[in-house]
Amino acid sequence: MGTRREWKKKGVREFFTSPELELSASDLISENLTLKAKLAQVTAKQELVLSTIRIFGFQIHYKRLPSSGAKEKILTAIKTASDSIPLSECLSAIGLSAARYHNWLKREVKCLP
Fold this sequence. Notes:
mainly alpha; 5 helices
């Protein structure tokens, strides 16, 4: 029996749907933009943590960085990540204190070793 004849004979059956399918196009676009922003934040934090691990190993606390190049790499990674997430969250993610971060920035600006 064809679908059309079946529907005529039995009527349209009830079905369940996902609430997301009932959203308007503008609601879906808004949700998509929100999710993209969250993804950008998570990606930025992940990249920051990975670059820190590559430089320091697994723990940054109480470690000295002998080279200014390593400090520059960390500062660059923090700057990149802070475009997407707050600075305090960046520093917390890698375990770097705000005081140490600002000290590194001052030294970089003054071109001190």
